[in-house]
Every structure is written in C-alpha cells, then in structure tokens.
C-alpha cells in the first residue's frame, strides 16, 4: 500500500497532461492522501479557511490523475436537483438533463462540492448513498440507480469557522469522509506560493507574508476572517503591475477584511509599519 | 473669586511650564480601538485590556517655572502588567498632532515586543527599540522623527550638574543609536522621563485578594463613574527591588511614599509647592480605596448569604464544577459548588400589564418563525415540476402564443428550525443599579425574560431560562426559571417576577452548568444566550484577568460541545473584553439598556434565521 506510484494511478486515467499541471505547493502529505483515497474509492473532505488552497489542490489533483473535474459552489438555494439533474422542457417535449454530480458518476471524474455547508441539509442527503461503500446514486425522477465507477471520486470542502455553526455539517455526513485539514501555509511555503503565483521577489513575498501573519493574529478578536493566501496573491499582483504597495495593501488586503473604518485604520497602520509611510 | 483667579493662574502657568500642546493633543480614548488592534497584531497578549495609566512621580529636577506651577512632577509613561496595557491618557508633548499620535503607536509597538524583561531599564528599552525597528522597518522614519523631537525637548547635558550630565548623555546616545549604551551612569536624581521608552518602574498591580476592583461593584453604589476616575492608581504594595541596577534602587526609594505621607509632606525635596488642592488624579498612590470611593460602596464587599429560612429553596447538594486557573494554565477539578435553586413562595402570575401590547406584537411576528412546509408554485427552480404551469405553458405554445418566460417548478419551502436555546441571565448585585429614574438593570432583565419567553413560545423552538449569581467559589447560585421540558405559563412567569439582584458574577461555573443542560437537548442547533451587564467577577481571585480567562475557557468548552454561545450585554465597555471571550461575531452590546427587552427577541430571530 505504501509503495503507491503514479503509474498505478495513471492506469486509471486517460492521458496525463503533466505540462498543464496547475501550480501547487503541497503543505504536507496531502498529495499522497488524495491518491490513496482515490485508489481505495474513499470520499474526501477538505476543511480549512477560505483562500488557503483547497480549490487549487483539487484542480491540481484532477489534472495530475487525469480526471475531469466537476466543481459545484454550494449556496443555500442549491437544491438536490441542481446536483442530480432535472427535466427540462424543450420544443414540446420534456427531457432529462444530468446535473454535475450525475455526470461525474456516469462518466467518471471528480465531483467537488466547494463550501458544502452552505448547501441546505436536505440537499446533501443525496450524497449519503454515494459516500458509503454502496457508491450508488439513485435518481428518483428517472427511476435509475447509477453505480459509481472506480474513476468517480467525491470531494467536499468547507470552512469550519464557528460563525458557520448554524449551518455546520451534520456529524452523520461528516463521518462519511476521509478528512484533511488545511491551514494557512507556513511562512516559507507561503512565500514560495506568492513568488510562484505572481513572480514576486523574495523581499516582497517575505514582507507580505509577515504582514499577513500580523493580521492573522487578529482573527476572531477583531476580524471575522483571517487574511488569506489568495488576498496575498492579489496584493502581490497589484504591486508587480506597478501599483503603489501601500495602496495595493489597502485595496487587496485591508478593505476585503473589514467594513469597520476604525479597524481599517488600524490595519493600515500595520501596513505602514511594514512598508513605511 | 480669589480661588477662581488662583485656578486660572495655575492652569496658565502649568501650560507654559510644561510646554504642552493641548490643541494638538491625541487622547487614548480617540485611538483606543486602534491601540488594541495594533497591540494584538504586533504580538501583544490578546487578554490584556488597554487603559490609561495614572501619572507616576518621576523625581527628576524641575525648572523653576515648573516648580512654581507645581506641575511636571508626574508623567504618564507606558507599562504592562498581568491584566493591562497602560498607556498615557493623553499625549500632547509635541506641537504636531501626528507626532503625538505616532508616539502612541510607537509605545504600543514597544509594549507588544517582549524583549528580555530581565535587563536593566536602559538596556531593555534599547533592545526593544532595536527589535521593533527590525520587525517593522516601516516604523524607522517615524522613530527618527520622534527621537529628534524628544531630543529637542530634553535638557542640554552641558547645563546639568556633574553626574546628571553623564546620565543625560547616555540617554541621548541610547536614543540616537539604540544598542550603543551599556549602562546608565549613577546620579543624584533619576533622569528626565524618556517618553519613547517604557516605564522604568511600573507600579505594582493591585493586591489580588481582599477587595474587588471591578467597576461593577462601584457601579452598584454609584452608577456614574467619570472616565478620568477609571484610571488605575498606583497600588500601595511595594515589592522589594529585584533589579541589581543601583539607579533603579534609588528611583524606587523615592517613590515609596504612601498617599498619606505624600499629602502631609508634599514637598519631597528642596522645592516649595503651592498649597495643594489638586484633584485626586494628581496623586499616584491611593491606599484607602482603589477608586477613591466612599465606605458605603465598599460595605458591599462583605455581603452575607441570607439565612436558610429566608433564602430560595436549594435543590440537591450542589454540583461540583471545575475552574480554569490562567496563571497555572490548568483546570482545577471540583473547584466550585453550584447550587440550583427555586424561588421560595413565588406565586403564579399573569404577564405584567405594561408588557402586554409589546408581547402581542412579538408573538405575531414570531409566529412566522414556526416550522412549516409550503409548496411555492411557479418557481424558476424547484424539486418538482409545477404541472399546472407546465400545462399552461404547453397549451400556450401549441396555441401559437409567444411563450413567456415563466416558472415551471414547485419548490418545497423548508423551515427546519430544529433549535434549542438556553438563556442564562446575570442576576448579580450590579443589576441593582439604576439605568434611569425609575428602572434598575434587574427590571430590564426581568422584562427581557418575559418578552423573550412570550416571543419564543409563539415559535416551536425549545427554550429554557436560568439566572445566576455567586458568592465565592462554594456558592454559585443557579436559579431555575424555566426548564426545557416545562411549558411557559403563569407559574414560570411567577418565577421570573421573583428574580432579584444579589452577589457577584462567577460566570465560568454558571456557563459550564448551563452548557451541560443544553447539550442534553436533542436539537441540532443549540444556542447558549448569555445576558449580562458587566465583566465576570467575584470576591476572591475571580476578578480581572482570572475571571475573564476562566469564562473564556468555559465558552470554548461550550463550543467544543457543539453549542453556540452568544453574549448580549449592556456594559458599554463590553467591547474591551468581549471579543476575547466570545470572538468578534459572538456578542452584541446594547447601547440603550431600556431597549433590551424589545431588542433581544429580534436579535434571536436574526441569529436563528
Ligand atoms: N498550496 C498552494 N499552492 C499554490 N497556490 C496556492 C496554494 N495555496 C493557495 N494558493 C493561492 O491562493 C489562491 C486561493 O486558493 P483557493 O484554492 O482558491 O482557496 P480555497 O479554495 O481554499 O478558498 C489560489 O488561487 C492560489 O493563487
Ligand atoms: Mg475555494
């Protein structure tokens, strides 16, 4: 089981496009875990704050294994039909249209439900028979019962901040998944990510990552969300395109984090302390 | 009249002598929120409150003018103790507002950087300066500006007598080139205060036992505390100097004067001060009462429990609960005894007449929250086809009509309110204070409990009501108002009507017990609402940081259990400590307490939407 290699995985796949691989820096053993889970047909749950690389990781893995990826961003109006499919009315006839989940099951591929707790609980019930060892998807409307092929994998993600409590994941759903916890990358790693994504130099990347970590200590006490890697990438992108660094921090780092003016003023002081004024 | 002229003269001459710039002043109050955020983000302890410090005596030589004015003996410097970041209440040293503000920021950065607290004062501050400049390169030019301005204000070394001159030169060098000065040369007097550094000799923090210093207690006797009075006074306790630095010794020796001595003598050395009737803010050590309050309010410290016969009826022998000791970082098992109790002789009562109109309105609003399932027709999206709409649509098409865009689905509107809520109300003595001419806090809490119950009983949500107060760790009084399984009726209303203020606020234990009751509920969403008017506190060490940290751990435990704690407070200063306890989205401060009864049900609706 340990000596798992890519060849084995690629025997499942169509064509590996190694050159098209998205840029992804692993935090730890997540690549290996994903591959094992895929091979053993286990569903995977990724938890972590927004913008820490969950989506990027999944698209990287899909590309690496060579599977089509069906991504659904969940929200509270999402219905089971949005996942499974529905009848549409065309020219005088009605016809059935597969939803992304059904398509992934029929054709093989990764179905990725992003921010799954945003979906209502009655929506995610359709995942149950798919996420245990039955691996089936019953489609009530058409009377079909689809059996998932080995190339099908269910991946869900969510952000376990307690502000999501009322929407929190049911334990009975959570317990169906192999789980992986993401956090913001360690400083050196995050620097490399910023550099890799934007072409920033070490100095700038280091400054931004330090700044982000100062801001992250304010999570919960003063800010609802921590500054994400995504925001760092945006900030670096603005700076590299020639925008003033302090203004870039305000636009891409400070304002997205708070609506409160005094808090924003304080965050700007933190920016000045790093970038000068 | 003479007095008036005297006061005017005093003010005038103080201004000249001190070279302060009140029109350019920046006050801590103006920047306190920013101060807290900066302190925490730069690495300071998030459990500390930001407060204005009392001025402390610095003991350095004063100019003749200053001597005549009787001012400039005290300076407000910055220091940290176990509970507080103490910052000057006002900075008006510089003629530019920006510089005054920058000085605040600089002091905060310095305080947030823990550099070798064991070093002697002069080394410690140079090290901290170097650390700050290294961590925050952006502060370098501000430091430069501040240092230039401060050097300008300091006495010229060449005009000082031998000894003081060398001292001054050392300080100047240390400011210009942090890290370059090894030690402070000895002198007869301490140097002029260095505004860019932390306090050389932080006052001892209040004695931890005996008296409570929670403003809440004083609140009970005297509802309005002037902001100025809120500053902390340098406590009487004086530790043995632990530093080997001889300068520190002499500095301490000078500041050991107690208040009484200070009042009597009031001319510690060679100078003559004008007769002193300056307000108490000018005195740095108050040994009588920490807030200069009267004996009347302090009598409350010695409350006794009522006799068993007249007290509420205890149920069972009490429940042992743990408590968190933040200094030891451990949970002390079976540290508190919580006693569930029922009001004695509470008669069943109808809803008080003054609430009936509001109650009726709330009930009809809340009826909309009851669980229901409805099919909405003609939706653009839904789980079923809306056959009627489809037939219509097809018929239209076949009849050659231009088909309009039209919703063809039915959707099942879900109200899955699978919810249990426990409301825990603070019934400590502080709720005895008046918020208006005719209403006390407790009256507002009582009305709130009534209206909350009226509103919730109109929904299907399960709810329970409890109240609590405490007198040391062995007497946590947990008043049963309404259990989950009971219907809200006249008997419950009678219990609510019977609540009365008493004792202190040992919040941690009450929260722990409430959590245990709530977690047993089968609902998927469990809301723990805490209703309070101030900080956790009790007679023993449960005050200040200790109480806050225990409460914080209790909240954390509740969250671990899958509960959602949420705090509703009428304490205006709540924003100073509540984020530390509940997180930024875990509490709300109700600014006008009189509105609490109507606000809470609406808040509940919002929280559970
Ligand atoms: N480990 C990583 N390797 C490469 N880029 C990353 C990594 N983590 C985060 N990023 C960057 O951060 C951005 C946000 O990541 P994303 O996967 O969308 O976050 P999430 O899905 O967790 O909200 C990405 O677009 C990418 O630029
Ligand atoms: Mg994402």
Automatic annotation (TrEMBL), chain A:
Keyword entries, A-Z: ATP-binding, Nucleotide-binding
Domain CbbQ/NirQ/NorQ C-terminal: 190-273
Keyword Hydrolase applies: no
Pfam families hit by this protein: AAA_5, CbbQ_C
Domain ATPase dynein-related AAA: 43-177
InterPro entries: ATPase_dyneun-rel_AAA, CbbQ/NirQ/NorQ/GpvN, CbbQ_C, P-loop_NTPase
UniProt-recorded Gene Ontology molecular function terms: ATP binding; ATP hydrolysis activity
Similarity-based family: Belongs to the CbbQ/NirQ/NorQ/GpvN family.
UniProt protein name: Denitrification regulatory protein NirQ
Natural source organism: mine drainage metagenome
From TrEMBL, chain B:
Span list, region Disordered: 181-234, 267-288
VWFA domain ranges (all copies): 426-586
Comp. bias regions, Basic and acidic residues: 214-234, 276-285
SUPFAM superfamilies: vWA-like (SSF53300)
Database matches in InterPro entries: NorD/CobT, VWF_A, vWFA_dom_sf
PANTHER family: NORD PROTEIN (PTHR41248)
Protein name as catalogued: von Willebrand factor type A domain protein
């Amino acid at each position: 089981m340990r000596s798992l290699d890519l060849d084995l995985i690629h025997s499942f796949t169509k064509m590996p496009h190694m050159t098209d691989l998205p840029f992804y820096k692993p935090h730890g053993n997540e690549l290996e875990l994903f591959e094992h889970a895929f091979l053993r047909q286990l569903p995977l749950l990724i938890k972590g704050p927004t913008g820490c690389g969950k989506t990027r990781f999944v698209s990287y893995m899909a590309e690496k294994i060579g599977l089509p990826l069906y991504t659904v961003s969940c929200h509270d109006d999402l219905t089971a039909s949005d996942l499974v499919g529905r009848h549409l009315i065309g020219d005088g006839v009605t016809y059935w249209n597969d939803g992304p989940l059904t398509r992934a099951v029929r054709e093989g591929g990764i179905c990725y439900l992003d921010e799954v707790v945003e979906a209502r609980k009655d929506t995610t019930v359709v995942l149950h028979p798919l996420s245990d060892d039955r691996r089936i998807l019953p489609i009530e409307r058409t009377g079909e019962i689809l059996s998932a092929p080995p190339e099908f994998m269910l991946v869900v993600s969510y952000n376990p901040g307690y502000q999501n409590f009322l929407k929190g994941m049911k334990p009975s759903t959570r317990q169906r998944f192999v789980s992986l916890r993401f956090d913001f990358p360690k400083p050196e790693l995050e620097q490399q990510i910023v550099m890799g994504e934007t072409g920033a130099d070490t100095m700038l990347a280091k400054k931004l990552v330090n700044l982000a970590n100062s801001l992250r200590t304010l999570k919960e006490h003063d800010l609802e969300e921590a500054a994400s890697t995504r925001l760092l990438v945006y900030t670096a992108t603005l700076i590299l395109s020639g925008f003033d660094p302090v203004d870039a921090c305000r636009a891409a780092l400070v304002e997205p984090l708070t609506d409160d003016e005094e808090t924003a003023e304080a965050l700007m002081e933190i920016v000045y302390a790093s970038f000068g004024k | 009249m003479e007095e008036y002229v005297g006061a005017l003269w005093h003010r005038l001459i103080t201004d000249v002598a001190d070279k302060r710039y009140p029109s350019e002043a920046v006050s801590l109050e103006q920047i306190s929120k920013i101060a807290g955020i900066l302190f925490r983000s730069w690495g300071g302890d998030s459990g500390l409150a930001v407060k204005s410090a009392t001025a402390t005596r610095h003991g350095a030589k004063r100019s003749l003018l200053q001597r005549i004015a009787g001012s400039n003996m005290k300076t407000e410097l910055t220091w940290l103790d176990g509970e507080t970041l103490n910052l000057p209440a006002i900075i008006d040293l510089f003629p530019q507002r920006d510089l005054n503000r920058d000085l605040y920021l600089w002091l905060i950065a310095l305080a947030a950087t823990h550099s070798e607290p064991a070093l002697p004062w002069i080394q410690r501050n140079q090290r901290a300066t170097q650390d700050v400049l290294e961590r925050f390169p952006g502060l370098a030019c501000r430091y430069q500006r501040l240092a230039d301005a401060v050097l300008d204000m300091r006495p010229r070394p060449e005009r000082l007598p031998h000894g003081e001159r060398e001292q001054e030169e050392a300080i100047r060098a240390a400011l210009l080139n942090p890290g370059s000065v090894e030690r402070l040369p000895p002198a007869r007097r301490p140097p002029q205060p260095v505004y860019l550094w932390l306090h050389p000799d932080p006052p001892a923090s209040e004695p931890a036992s005996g008296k409570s210093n929670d403003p809440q207690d004083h609140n009970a006797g005297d509802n309005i505390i002037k902001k100025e009075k809120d500053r902390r006074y340098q406590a009487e306790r004086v530790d043995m100097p632990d530093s080997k630095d001889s300068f520190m010794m002499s500095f301490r020796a000078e500041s050991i004067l107690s208040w009484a001595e200070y009042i009597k003598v009031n001319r510690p050395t060679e100078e003559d001060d004008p007769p002193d009737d300056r307000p108490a803010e000018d005195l740095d050590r108050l040994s009588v009462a920490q807030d200069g309050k009267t004996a009347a309010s302090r009598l409350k410290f010695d409350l006794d429990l009522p006799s068993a016969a007249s007290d509420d009826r205890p149920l069972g022998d009490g429940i042992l609960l743990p408590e968190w000791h933040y200094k030891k970082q451990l949970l002390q098992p079976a540290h508190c005894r919580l006693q569930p109790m029922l009001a004695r002789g509470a008669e069943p009562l109808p809803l008080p007449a003054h609430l009936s109109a509001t109650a009726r309105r709330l009930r009809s609003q809340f009826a909309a929250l009851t669980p229901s399932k409805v099919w909405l027709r003609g939706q653009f999206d839904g789980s079923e086809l809306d056959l009627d709409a489809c037939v219509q649509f097809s018929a239209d098409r076949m009849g050659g009509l231009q088909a309009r865009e039209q919703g063809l689905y039915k959707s099942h509107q879900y109200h899955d309110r699978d919810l249990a809520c426990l409301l825990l109300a603070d019934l400590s003595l502080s709720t005895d204070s008046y918020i208006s001419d005719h209403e006390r806090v407790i009256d507002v809490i009582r009305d709130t409990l009534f209206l909350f119950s009226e509103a919730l009983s109109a929904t299907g949500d399960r709810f329970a009501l409890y109240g609590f107060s405490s007198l040391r760790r062995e007497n946590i009084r947990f008043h049963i108002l309404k259990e989950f399984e009971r219907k809200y009726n006249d008997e419950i209303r009678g219990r609510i009507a019977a609540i009365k203020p008493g004792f202190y606020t040992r919040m941690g234990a009450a929260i722990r017990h409430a959590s245990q009751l709530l977690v047993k509920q089968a609902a998927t969403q469990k809301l723990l609402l805490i209703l309070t008017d101030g900080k956790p506190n009790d007679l023993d060490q449960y005050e200040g940081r200790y109480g806050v940290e225990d409460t914080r751990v209790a909240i954390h435990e509740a969250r671990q259990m899958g509960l959602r704690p949420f705090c509703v407070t009428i304490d205006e200063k709540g924003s100073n400590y509540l984020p530390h306890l509940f997180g930024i989205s875990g509490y709300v401060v109700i600014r006008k307490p009189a509105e609490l009864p109507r606000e809470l049900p609406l808040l509940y609706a919002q929280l559970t939407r």
